[in-house]
Specification:
Mean pLDDT: 91
Strand order of the largest sheet: 2-1-10-9-11-12-13-14-15
Largest sheet: 9 strands, mixed
CATH topology of the largest domain: Rossmann fold
CATH class of the largest domain: Alpha Beta
Strand content: 25-35%
Shape: globular
Helix content: 25-40%
CATH architecture of the largest domain: 3-Layer(aba) Sandwich
Oligomer: single chain
CATH superfamily of the largest domain: ANL, N-terminal domain
Structural class: alpha/beta
């Protein structure tokens, strides 16, 4: 149980150590329920967990880790094709959770009961940092989702680095309502609490009221969550007693950043990571918090920028390049995909994130977006979509914006902005927004076209689905 030190008894015990959607467990109770899962899962090639936001999900995940079995979190809202792919591709033999579907794709159902306890003969699997802790499936925006193999040592290294950066310890109460099948909500939001000894309150759904009522010291959220809290001043002011508000999984709009600072008395801390790397860059609790920036590399992590030709891009605060990383939190490859694994690494051993970034002379990182959709090549210029989006959001009549590069016979790609109008600011004109950006950025970065939309399509973690915009579906 070395990964989850709170279950070793080093922090004592408390009746409400883990609370999920109102169901509270002590660490001893969690260990008992998880031990019962581990006893039944021991020796299986993999344990899929239907990751509903419940205490049973936490017990199932912990049980798989204690058994030394790779845990495969399964999104509860996954469609039948995606679910079948993950279960088949992962090689899992068991499906754990509550409310399991009748069709388990040939897996053995393992219902989870929080009152269950293991037999006296059960013992946790021996610690092995090289053992796979999770098979986490990517979003699959460029094909079927791939299973990233995350070893125990990477989870431990990542959580310890964040504990240092955020001064996260047993005196904290962590609050969030994020999905339990992603790095943010599961690895950070559950295992982080079980490693640092902090109390965990998962609100079930990430509502402003739920966050306000939890009285935490440390809060996790994605931009959609923080935007809704910023729009609810009464709820936001209840977070003034917290010591750290963390935002991740997508860029936090600057107006939301500033509104949270105004209402809570503190600026949010942003961080950067991905499924394959866990968290690699973060704003420190005792460091500067800049709007639009994700901070500095965590201890043990190295970063660099590379151009399309593979040559180094300078860290001058202006030049855009692909972010590449090295460090102890990286994955062991994609399950059964040796070619995809090999393509993810440079010849000299750096992981290619596929994200476009700018690094300042002081080491602060700013993520521009994905190279596939956020690096726009227009008229011979390389334009970061994130920079144009930030400029648009500065307009008082813009609630949100997403920028893409649409095919153009003359420019190669044209900068096209999808804009969600704010309330109470009157009608927005296309020329007004184009000129607004041109006055703030270089003229070649201005949108060539502006499309007003009621909302932007997003995934469960709040990331805008830009390919859907490019395909014509706002």
């Amino acid at each position: 149980m070395g990964l989850l030190t709170a279950l070793d008894g080093g922090y004592g015990d408390r009746a409400d150590a883990v609370a999920v959607d109102g169901a509270a467990l002590s660490w001893e109770q969690l260990l008992g329920a998880a031990g019962a899962v581990a006893e039944r899962a021991a020796g299986a090639p993999g344990l899929a967990v239907l990751a509903r936001p419940t205490a049973e999900t936490v017990a199932a995940v912990v049980g798989g880790l204690l058994a030394g079995v790779p845990v495969v979190p399964l999104p509860p809202d996954s469609g039948p094709v995606e679910r079948a792919h993950i279960l088949r591709d992962s090689g899992a033999a068991l499906l754990a959770g509550t409310g399991l579907p009748e069709d388990t794709e040939g897996l053995t159902a393992l219902p989870v009961d929080l009152a269950d306890r293991p037999s006296g003969a059960w013992r946790p699997a021996a610690e092995d940092g090289d053992r796979t802790a999770f098979v986490l499936y990517t979003s699959g925006t460029t094909g079927a989702p791939k299973g990233a193999l995350i070893p125990h040592r990477a989870v431990a290294a990542g959580l310890d680095a964040l504990a240092d950066a955020w001064r996260w310890d047993a005196g904290d109460t962590l609050v969030h309502g994020l999905p339990l099948f992603h790095v943010h909500g599961l690895v950070l939001g559950v295992l982080g609490a079980l490693r640092t000894g902090s109390r965990l309150v998962h609100t079930g759904r990430p509502t402003p009221a739920g966050y306000a009522a939890a009285r935490g010291s440390l809060y996790f959220g994605v931009p959609t969550v923080w935007s809704r809290i910023a729009a609810d001043p009464a709820a936001a002011r209840e977070l003034a007693g917290a010591r750290l508000l963390v935002s991740g999984s997508a860029p936090l709009p600057v107006p939301v950043f500033e509104r949270l600072r105004q209402l809570t008395g503190q600026a949010p801390a942003e961080r950067y990571g991905m499924t394959e790397t866990l968290i690699t860059v973060a704003t420190r609790a005792d460091g500067e918090r800049r709007p639009g920036a994700v901070g500095l590399p965590l201890p043990g992590t190295r970063t660099r920028l590379a151009g399309e030709d593979g040559r180094p891009v300078p860290a001058d605060g202006e030049s855009v390049g692909e972010l590449q990383v090295q460090g102890p939190t990286l994955f062991d490859g994609y399950l059964g995909r040796p070619e995809a694994t090999a393509a993810s690494w440079t010849a000299d051993g750096w992981f290619r994130t596929g994200d476009v970034a700018v690094i300042g002379p002081d080491g602060f990182h700013r993520i521009v977006g994905r190279a596939s959709v956020d690096l726009i090549k227009s008229g011979g210029y390389r334009i970061g979509a994130g920079e144009v989006e930030a400029a648009l959001r500065d307009h008082p009549g813009v609630a949100d914006a997403a920028v893409v590069g649409a095919p153009d016979p003359d420019l190669g790609q044209a900068v096209v902005a999808y804009v969600v109008p704010g309330e109470g600011h009157g009608a927005l004109g296309e020329r007004e927004l184009i000129d607004f950006v041109a006055r703030r950025l270089s003229a070649h970065k201005r949108p060539r076209r502006v499309v007003l939309v009621a909302d932007l399509p997003r995934n469960a973690m709040g990331k805008v689905l830009k390919q859907r915009l490019l395909d014509g579906g706002a």
